[in-house]
């Protein structure tokens, strides 16, 4: 998992050097600190940019940022273990770490794929 975290860190830093980066995470992960209204979300998506006016730090262990939720600041802690995808929001090009993808979300995606047909496919 350490190499995955390093890959997530490197990928995020690369995207941030180019502009915005959307981080998809399982907010239920024990070490994640986000507002309580989002804590049960297995697919929380947050957009980051190096030009944030509030404190923002990316380390090899995770993301530490003060984000605004409903106009209220919250000091967020997002360990890379909880991150399952990072992408560029406009193009949607990015990467999914399947081993970090929430298992219960996989079941939902799988059920939706069966209902919709072969067009819906999870790729990494």
From TrEMBL:
InterPro entries: SspB, SspB-like_sf. Pfam families: SspB. SUPFAM superfamilies: SspB-like (SSF101738). This is Stringent starvation protein B. It comes from marine metagenome.
